[in-house]
Amino acid sequence: MTYCEEQRKSPFSSTEVKNIIKDALKVLDKKHLAFIAHANSFPAEEGKNTGFGSINSNAAKKLIDFLSGVFTDIQLGPAGKTKSIDASPYTGTIFSNNPLFIDLEQLTTEEWHNILSINTYRKTVENNPNKNTNKTAYSYIFNAQEEALKEAYNNFKNINDEGLKEAFEKYKTENNFWLEKDSLYEALTEEHGNDYWPMWESETDKCLFNPQNEEQRIHFSQRINELKEKYAETINYYCFCQFVISKQNDKSREYAQSKDIKMIADRQVAFSDRDNWAYQAYFLKGWCLGCPPDYFSEDGQMWGFPVMDPEKLFNQDGSLGEGGILMKELYKKMFRENPGGVRIDHMVGLIDPWVYVSGRKPKIEEGAGRLYSSPEHPVLSRYAIATLEDLNSEVEADKEERILKLTEEQIKRYGALVEKIVIAAAKEVGLDKDSIVCEDLGTLTYPVVSVMKEYDLQGMKLIQFVVPEKPEHPYRCKNIPPRSWAMVGTHDNEPIAMWAEATVNTEAGYLNGKNLAEDLWPDASPEEREAIAVRISKDAPFLTQTKLVELFACRAENIQIFFTDFLGLHDVYNRPGTSGDQNWSLRIPDNYEEVYCNNLKEGKALNLPLILKLAIEARGKEFASQNQEIISKLESLI
Questions:
Q1: 175 contacts 242 by C-beta, under 8 angstroms
Q2: What is the distance in angstroms between the CA of the first residue and the CA of the last residue of the chain?
Q3: 291, 301 in Cβ contact below 8 A?
Q4: Which neighbouring-strand residues pair with 265?
Q5: Strand order in the sheet with 32-36
Q6: From the centroid of its chain, how far is CA 52?
Q7: Of 27, 171, 189, 409, whose CA is between 20 and 30 Å from 92?
Q8: Alpha-carbon distances, residue 596 vs 257, 325, 593 (angstroms)
């Protein structure tokens, strides 16, 4: 019997315990409690670790069972196909799913007519260099998965199952608008010996879906037909992988929903090389998306991502242009497949993007500016929504405070993509705007703030990033509004315990302590608060605990917890600006229940009964008195 079961300290040990936790969350007005874990970080069962996580594995089902009854959602990462040299999910494709998420074990079963041999599956597991660690083996599995899937495809062609084969043909037809381009890119990768289209020698192949005249259109069409014939098997194999992952995803999400858990997708701001090639006609030629210089980057961030041409997003009459139709189809697909909603990475990139000239740095002096907020710019002024009269001329173009005012009509224009594409796509598949999670961390220009307010969208509050010397900072407990998603950190941050260790015994630690003492001990005397503040500033475990209490005590209706903070892991999933197999590699340990229980015993893992009890008490004596019954129930679990 595990520690959690023996001591009844796990919030997941019984239905009774789960109901107490749910009642406490309800008392605190929490509508959603989401578990953040990118799919590649999901655990494996013993003896079944191929080197990459998946929501489609049997281990994923067990994790869902473990989380069910308390967590309402799982916040996933981007699910697009990634490149062999880059594990970052934030540079994946916008339509194609990542074949690495295919659960190979299922392909060895009767359901799939044993199209993958047991020997190949076992070899994939056995050769995984990280099979005994909670780390992915990206370079290894990228090649090993391809080898296994090609075997499965070759066997699939010979199965005697007309129903499954008809489903495959139907899938190809229904998804042809994006699948044709993505699979053709795979053929061209084979043709040119690399998967980076700017390096291809053929100018024709670089521009197959971007003809400039009728002559080119005819020529390119002939070339497309030639490639389809020459690489028919390559194209069909690509489609097969997308078909398999689609069927597995559907089953996994159905299983999660049967356990009252919904998946939330993640729409990255980037477009992959494959997407850039396929839809280059819709992008603003010569411009890239990035970030202006700031505290962390003296020259700004050169992301290199293409920028949607505003004139291709919308026609002059305000209707959707070709680019707008594409984006709406993307969001419809994401909302349809993820009833929990979609997290939009980098909301400012939709509303008020910072763009720079390709090949230059994203600095003002090198021609960079905000796409819709640069009426003084010699090139970008044609897209400007803000006028010169709306600007504070004494503030530089890269500063948040530059725009002073906007009319209602201007706000609507800034929000057109959100209203006519994102919200409209959600409504068309039966969801509402609350299914949209807006990542609005960092830069918040006036247009972004105005659009978020106009459409009553829910942003994110990351309490690890609070600026303690600013009493009204939006990430501080007392300032967090109900209609928001709050968290101590995301996939880009160190676990809260590591943050606390770096914060104690500093001025910031003391300032954090003062704010937390004021916000979470409302009935304490000034002397008591000072003592609490001093303790917080010197005691890392206490600071960690208090930040978690702050998270649940704040007024946000929706909470997210990254798996490292929940399990009490002392490791980092992503270190922004770094690359290689070690980044994006951290996984939930295969023995996560044991790890959770042991770390709970040592005070490292999230002790929900304790944290919720303290969060209720942090609302004040009167509130605690009104909810003494639930406090008593929580105390019985501590």
A1: yes
A2: 18
A3: yes
A4: 342
A5: 436-438, 342-344, 262-267, 73-75, 32-36, 558-562, 484-487, 459-462
A6: 17
A7: 171
A8: 24, 46, 5
Q: Which residues pair with 460 in a beta bridge?
A: 485
Say which residue the tokens 């004494």 belong to: 394
Q: Which residue carries 């959707």 as its tokens?
A: 320
- Please enumerate in sequence order all residues whose Cβ is within 8 A of that of 324, keeping only pairs 6 or more positions apart, or say none: 312, 313, 314, 417, 420, 421
pLDDT tens digit sequence for 558-584: 999 999 999 999 999 998 877 788 899
What value, to the nearest 5°, has the Cα angle with vertex 91 and ends 87 and 95?
A: 115
Altogether, the residues listed in the chain come to a count of: 638
Rounded CA separation 366/344 (Å): 29
Q: Which amino acid is at 246?
A: S
Measured from the Cβ of residue 233, the count of other Cβ atoms closer than 10 Å reads 13
Ranges of each domain in the chain = 1-30+490-638, 31-40+71-249
Of 562, 405, 420, the residue nearest 493 (C-alpha) = 562
Q: Please, what sign has the CA dihedral across residues 55, 56, 57, 63?
A: positive
CB atoms within 10 A of CB 449: 18
Torsion of CA 281, 285, 289, 295, to 10 degrees: 180
Burial class, 68, CB count within 10 angstroms (exposed 0-12 / middle 13-18 / buried 19+):
middle
Return the closest-CA partner of residue 415 out of 387, 444, 457. 457
| 596-633 pLDDT, tens digit each | 999 999 999 999 999 999 999 999 999 999 999 999 99
8 Å CB contact between 374 and 299 = no
Query: In the sheet where 354-357 sits, what is the strand order?
Result: 301-308, 283-291, 354-357, 369-370
Percent of the chain, pLDDT > 70? 98
Domain 31-40+71-249 adopts which CATH fold? TIM Barrel (3.20.20)
- Angle formed at CA 513 by CA 510 and CA 515, multiple of 5 degrees: 115
